[in-house]
């Protein structure tokens, strides 16, 4: 199991285009963040197929994490911490859920 303490280092590598690091971040956080997506979609979405909405929101969020990771590194004035990475990914997930709710 990957330690959460190295999440900042992993996200730094992701920001530099490291696909293996992205896979490790995904393996570490996908289950808890999918739970957040499911709960959020249930409360925010009027869509009939909430499972499909949750899956799409999760896919969108992880796509955004990969695409926007360089932005996280550029905006940081210090080495990334695990807290920085988790807060940033949480923001991506909640933004994705909100976008999915607006589309639905």
UniProtKB/TrEMBL annotation:
Protein name: RNA polymerase sigma-70 factor, ECF subfamily
Superkingdom, natural source: Bacteria
Phylogenetic classification of the source organism: Bacteria, Bacillati, Actinomycetota, Actinomycetes, Pseudonocardiales
Organism of origin: Lentzea flaviverrucosa
